[in-house]
Amino acid sequence: MKQEKVRWKYKLPFLLLAVIAILSLIPVTYANEIPEGVVIDHADTAWMLMASALVLLMTPGLAFFYGGMVRYKNLVSTLLQSFVALGIISVLWVVIGFSLAFGDSIGGFIGNPFTFAFFKNVGVAPNPAFAATIPFALFAMFQLKFAIITPALITGGLAERVRFSSLLLFICLFSLFIYAPLAHMTWHPDGILRNWGVLDFAGGTVVHISAGFAALSGAMFLGRRKGKTENEPTNIPYILLGTGLLWFGWFGFNAGSALAADGVATTAFVNTNIASATAMLTWLLGDGALGKKRSAVGAAVGAVVGLVAITPAAGFVTVGQSIFIGFVAAMVSYTAVRYKSKSNIDDTLDVFSCHGLGGIVGMILTGVFAKNVGLTSGQTHTFLFHLLALVLVSIFTFAGSYVLYKVTDMILPMRVTPEQEEKGLDLTQHGEEAFDFRTK
Fold first, then answer.
1. Is-contact 184 198, C-beta < 8 A?
2. How many CB atoms lie within 10 A of CB 91?
3. 226 falls in which pLDDT band (50, 70, 90)?
4. d(CA 435, CA 125)
5. Are 97 and 180 in contact (CB under 8 A)?
6. Is 72 exposed, middle or buried, given 0-12, 13-18 or 19+ CB atoms closer than 10 A?
7. Contacts of 61 by beta carbon, 8 Å cutoff, 6+ apart
8. Which residues contact 270 (CB under 8 A, 6 or more apart)?
9. Which of 81, 43, 42, 34 is nearest to 430 (CA)?
10. CA 296, CA 200: separation in Å to the nearest integer?
11. Which residue among 32, 186, 243, 325 is the one 20 to 30 A from 366 at the CA level?
């Protein structure tokens, strides 16, 4: 009897997908004709198509970045945990996610789930409320890439001990109940945080702070890994490959958030590169100042921290300020990673130390440096509301994620058994191995 229940738990997701596939045949209205007098800007559209592809590339890049840091017995699982978000969030986004994030506002907190359900009224015609010069469907797809990488980032905090089927359920719940409301509050024209004047150019708050706190919450919920938990990267070339793909894709992440091929996109492009470069050098030279060898892993992690920190500020600050942001973020994250080992929290791949704290530094310094509205411009409103939003978002994402972990665990146990953890997730969860070391 018990075995029958277990089998049905694994059948239900497939049946749900089948229902979605059938429902998708119901005719809905697509805005596939451009109204007379409305002109789509070809340069903006071409750039946003490219930017969307660049951001999509970041998730496979993250998979390699994370995969190189875990033990070989968990390499396939770690790669797939990031990669699978491409599939599951893409479908969820079309069905209801985009509507929850950008549909008609309900109190400034979340979108109406029916406004754009199954991409109703989402097509080639522009929507001036969000982007007047590009097809609305392109805007939706650009935003999808942010929704994909956010839960993928969280997996780094749960690596080497999370059950794959449970992770899939959590990803869905997180996207619907944490990511979509936060994206709405921050980026929708009627969102409450946006109306407070909170600035998040490309996702420092929506993506990185939320993922950082969710990973921290998950690490606390799952507990420490069994046995030795110090990270000893097993494939450093994978880490460097992943970092390169992330850095390259981040130009779409940040410069694409201008939603146009213009000067703001150029500013964001320049700031993205220089902040990452500064953070990478800060990490390497910090190692040298402490008498440590300058590692490839340190260079990679530092570069990513700089990319994270400049994300909320990319279009609002100068090049000089981006250097400062990269330096400060690297110092904060470097210190956090060094002292993390003294705590009992096993955030496997330092998601909170790098993405969470990097996003926090970026958010605070955006309030300091943002052109015309920051502290350096003699204004206090934006900075104070950034501090308030930081507290509220931190509580919402940490506590909300913890509740979702509990709910998921009640349906499907989140953590693998000790035996499965010892054997490795590649074999126990997927029946595959990254490498076959047997003599043939």
1. no
2. 15
3. confident
4. 48
5. yes
6. middle
7. 241, 242, 243, 244, 245, 246, 248, 249
8. 319, 322
9. 81
10. 30
11. 243
d(CA 397, CA 23): 32
Proportion of the chain in helix, strand, coil states, percent, rounded to 5:
70, 0, 30
For 160, what's the count of Cα atoms within 13 Å in the CB-facing half-sphere?
26
The pair phi, psi for residue 111, each rounded to 5°, is -90, 155
What the block records as the tokens of 157 is: 């905090």
How far apart CA 215 and CA 155 sit, in angstroms, is 7
Give Cα 421 distance to the centre of its chain.
Answer: 26
Q: What is the DSSP string of 396-424?
A: HHHHHHHHHHHHHHHHS-SBPPHHHHHH-
Provide the pLDDT confidence category of residue 239 given band limits of 50, 70 and 90: very high
Question: How far apart are alpha carbons 235 and 151 in whole angstroms?
Answer: 23
Structure tokens at 335: 């210190």
Pick the closest to residue 64 from 186, 206, 245, 227 (CA basis).
Answer: 245
Read off the tokens for 9.
């738990």
pTM for this structure? 0.94
> Domain ranges in the chain?
37-413
Q: Any alpha helices (H) in 192-318, and if so which ranges?
A: 192-196, 210-222, 236-255, 263-289, 296-310
Measured distance CA(130)–CA(172) in Å, rounded: 25
Q: Look at the block and give the residue holding tokens 């930081």.
A: 390
Token digits of residue 371: 């052109």
- Can you read off the two tokens belonging to residue 408? 């998921």
d(CA 358, CA 364): 10
Which is nearest to 233 in space by CA: 279, 300, 293? 300
> Which residues face 131 on adjacent strands?
127
The amino acid sitting at 232 is: E
- Which range, of 42-46, 149-153, 292-296, 342-346, averages the lowest pLDDT? 342-346
Q: Report the CATH fold assignment for 37-413.
A: Ammonium transporter fold (1.10.3430)
User: By three-state DSSP, how is residue 343 classified?
Assistant: coil
Range from 14-23, 147-156, 224-233 that averages highest in pLDDT: 147-156
> What angle in degrees, to the nearest 10, is found between the helix axes of 180-187 and 381-411?
170
pLDDT in the model for residue 24: 82
**Contact status, residue 69 vs residue 268, Cβ threshold 8 Å:** no
For range 316-320, the mean pLDDT: 97
